[in-house]
Design goal:
Blueprint: H1 8-18, H2 26-34, H3 39-47, H4 62-74, E1 78-81, E2 84-87, H5 95-98, H6 104-107, H7 111-129, H8 142-155, H9 161-177, H10 198-204, H11 209-225, H12 231-234, H13 246-256, H14 261-268, H15 272-285, H16 297-304, H17 311-317, H18 323-335
Antiparallel strand pairs: 1-2
Helix pairs in contact: 2-3, 7-8, 10-11, 13-15, 15-18, 16-18
Length: 340
């Protein structure tokens, strides 16, 4: 087997498959790569340290995913049967090192909205400079337009248009100096120039489309991880709760109103096991969420020191913990959730 006919998406899929020590069903792997936050996907992505690869291709359709697995099977890279998917070849492409900034679990649902807001802001500022009052927004999404309008209104409370534009371009330039600017700059619009699509930029750079996509994603994840350095750009970032499933968002909303879990269960007519899934998802996603009511820091530290292949192994080592507490302990160390 060789890498001649394996593109970057294949490489990514093989790395995801390789991360798990036993066979996994295609449905589970599809949840990992598209970022479906099922209880099992959230739990195992943390247990096996796959969070950075979680949800990196949220737009992938099931049929396309299945076809890709079939191609990898036919090429001899994986075995695919009723028991699941197993790896036959060991990836040695350097994918993890090449895309070292990927953090899909943290940013999967916020990367594209952030970039759309960025595209629209660049267009607005450019047209201010060119004194163009009539133009079609490069981003038609109404939510994006609303957020950018609010953001601009906030900026102009303290600055003139010229001052706001200058400050914004200073931050943008700082980021692009540390990024692969040719991946992003051709996407921007302003004046008479209409930004190119990702596929068009990939073609201009003579890059395979999936290689361009992962380079683009890696650079944006690096920016999003360091947004505190860029206060203006930071305000374009969607809130972390956007990463949550709709049901978990509703549970978090009630908890933030001061309701306890029993009251939340009653209001939402949900079982405790479902609320547990929500709490694990919230703890994995929302940095300032406190799990101190269910687990303490000493327990988290104890679990974090081990190398585990299953929740059962942790249960045998920490018999006093229930599985809900074990799941929380696995997640808290990485997510930054609080134990107080």
């Amino acid at each position: 087997m060789g890498w001649a006919n394996v593109d970057v998406l294949d490489d990514y899929l093989l790395h995801v498959i390789a991360a798990f020590p036993r066979k996994r069903k295609p449905a589970f792997l599809y949840a990992i790569v598209t970022g479906k936050r099922t209880g099992q996907a959230v739990q195992d992505s943390h247990l096996f340290d796959v969070t950075r690869f979680f949800g990196c291709v949220p737009m992938m359709r099931q049929r396309y995913f299945d076809a890709r697995l079939g191609q990898l099977r036919d090429a001899g890279w994986i075995a695919l049967d009723e028991d699941g998917v197993s790896l036959l070849g060991v990836p040695e492409s350097g994918f993890a090192e090449r895309f070292a900034n990927l953090d899909g679990f943290s940013f999967q649902s916020r990367t594209a909205p952030f970039f759309e807001r960025l595209l629209l802001v660049v267009q607005v500022f450019s047209n201010w400079k060119h004194e163009r009052k009539r133009y079609l927004p490069i981003v038609r999404d109404e939510e994006t337009q609303f957020v950018v309008k609010q953001w601009l209104g906030y900026l102009l409370q303290e600055r003139t248009r010229s001052e706001a534009r200058t400050a914004f371009y200073r931050e943008l330039t700082m980021w692009l100096q540390d990024a692969k600017a040719d991946l992003y700059v051709p996407r921007f619009s302003g004046g008479d120039y209409i930004g190119k699509t990702g596929l068009q930029v990939a073609d201009e750079l003579d890059m395979e489309p999936w290689a361009y996509y992962f380079e683009w994603l890696d650079g944006l994840h690096k920016l999003l991880a360091w947004l505190e350095r860029f206060p203006m750009l930071q305000k374009l970032m969607p809130d972390a709760t956007r990463e949550l499933t709709t049901s978990a968002q509703e549970t978090l909303h009630l908890l933030r109103q001061g309701l306890d879990t029993e009251r939340v269960m009653a209001i939402r007519r949900l079982k405790w096991s479902t609320i547990q899934d929500h709490l694990v998802e919230i703890a994995a996603t929302v940095p300032d969420f406190s799990v101190g009511a269910w687990i303490d820091e000493a327990t988290v530290d104890g679990v974090a020191q081990g190398t585990w292949q299953s929740l059962k192994e942790i249960k045998e080592a920490f018999g006093e913990l229930d599985y809900f507490q074990i799941r929380l302990a696995l997640i808290v160390k990485r997510s930054g959730a609080k134990c107080n």
